[in-house]
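Our collaborator T.R. sent over the components below with a one-line note: 'Predict the complex.' Nothing else. No constraints on interfaces, no templates requested, no preferences about which chain binds where. So this is a plain run: every listed entity goes in together, and whatever single assembly comes back becomes the starting point for the next discussion.
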Amino acid sequence: MSDENSSPKSGTEPTAARSHLPMWTLVVLLTLLYLGGIYFDHHSGWFDRQVYAPFDNAAQLDAYQPKSGAAAALAAGKKSYESVCGTCHGNDGIGKAGQAPQLAGSEYVITRGFNRLAHIPLAGINGPIKVAGKDWNMAMAAMGMALSDADLANVLTYIRGSWGNKAGEVTAEDIKAIRASLGARPQAMTAETLQALPE
Amino acid sequence: MTVNESPSTTNIDASCRVPLLALFSGAALWLVVSSALAVLASLSFHMPGKFGDIPFLTYGRVQPAADDALLYGFCIPAGLGVLLWIFARLGQVPLRGGIVPVVAAHLWHLGVLAGVVGILAGESTGFTWLEFPRGAAALLFVAYLLLALWAFMNFTGRRAGGLFPSHWFFVAALFVFPWIYSVAQLLLIGAPVRGVVQSAVAWWYGGNLVFLWTSLIGLGAAFYFLPKFSGRPLHSYFYALFAFWTLLLFGSLSGIPAGAPLPAWMPALSALNSLLLIVPILAIAVIGWKTVMGGAVQTCKGGSYCMIKFGFVAFLLSALLLVAGACPQVSRITQFTWFSAAQTQLHLYGFLCITLFGAIYYILPRAVGRDFAFPRLIRLQHWCSMLGIFLLVVSLAAGGLLQGIKLHDAGAAFDDSTRAMLPFLRTSTMGLLLMLLANLLFALNLLTLLFLWHLSVIKTVVGAALAPLGKTGVKA
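Returned assembly:
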């Protein structure tokens, strides 16, 4: 410490010169901000919380989503099901006591054809009915009337293909035909009228 | 010693004496403990069986204990001590109510003791840099608030008018720690947030503490001592202002690695801010260059000036390593390797610790009013710590790069990548041993000074107590 001590100004407090900031610091700052901005623009997904590395933006993620075919139908059906049907039948398809019977493994769902199943959302249903060994006595409005043919077809495809159900696909044309056969104000189904229909 | 200094300077230095001794002596002990633990942790890589059966000496406990003892045990109390003295000197106001910082210093060191023992006993919280158990964290928080409050009161009561750049850096550091520490404790340990948000908070805290807080303290000290030693004014006020704000803005938003499993905007924003850190780094380099060079060149001969200059260069290097490591292209190779550990060590030890050594070697003799007992050891310590940190950082950084390249080679077995590290880890152990020696020398000088001061106090007290008796005895 003797060296510093001998220096003439060691006792006084340091001062700061007042020379101004040169322009190049701002140029460097703005250049880096520009380059960094380009990087951020390309790789951040603009604060989309679905976008993770290695993907860069929402459009890229979208390109990986199924656009058509069975997977797309199932995905669309799941979306409609969960907003329209899931409230009572449950998003897991096991139904809710006092609200709606189960769809998973239900004998009205996993039939070979889907004629009976399609009549329920299109016409509604009331009165006593036995589903998977349990007795129900409720009423369901014609919830499917508000859905388009394609949407309802997707929902039914989803119901028939989820939670262990392995029944086949439903197409928009089929729904269109059944809807046409029912007329404008169809009578609600009962267990008996449903059973009377062909599968 | 005080030939050129105004008469009140002696009083100002003396007013800091007891708080500084309390802060620095505890810090010196933790420094030795930390490097001893770090050597143990490093040894467990090439002698894994040696301590495997002793639970508190296993790597998972020793390594965090060593890191935390270094940062919380040495860097923070020593940094706050340097800050207290520089505030008092710059403001030309003696430190009043010195008993509070003394109590706070002891409280702080007690907290670190509880924390380190807690980690070794297996009570770590599991978050990097936040391993200390709750009780210890509460002690640290209260102690920091007290120290910061006293420093801030001294700051607001300053007599010498304008602000010097060190003021900004130090005041920001005073506020940064309580803010980040309380937020991290609350969001990670008090009322934990869910899922990966925890990792985001932990990275944010680590980045702000290990890079931002340490940079504010170390640069504040360097900007005070560089002009003091070079005998030239700091070049300049406006450069420093620019560096301060850009460092604070960009430094506080970096820290999340590029490969983090978080929504892409978080690592991208962090990488952007790390890139922008080049701006304050350049400004700081220019400040150092223009302040030190150009005038009558002062030689340093291994004293405080040398250490502060070395620390300053280490800051520039470690900050550049941080920027490089945050580049996604580099990070792809260096993530999960020793590379980031090399950067952290360079920043904490090479920059902050060595800067603080230089500051303490300058401050303490003035505050205590007595020279160090072994002035030659200061130079030896400087060489040991320089060589030690050089070996440690170069071996870990080079080894980390090699490890990363091997990890990326689909043809190389994983075992290869870890085995390739062995020679580098052995070299790093050599570096840590040298650092342990340096820290022992530092503690020896400091504790001897403390002991001699205690001795002189006791002599004075005993002398004062015995003096009248002696006189009457002789006369009778």
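Summary for T.R.: Residues 69-196 of chain A form a domain with the Cytochrome Bc1 Complex; Chain D, domain 2 fold (CATH 1.10.760.10).
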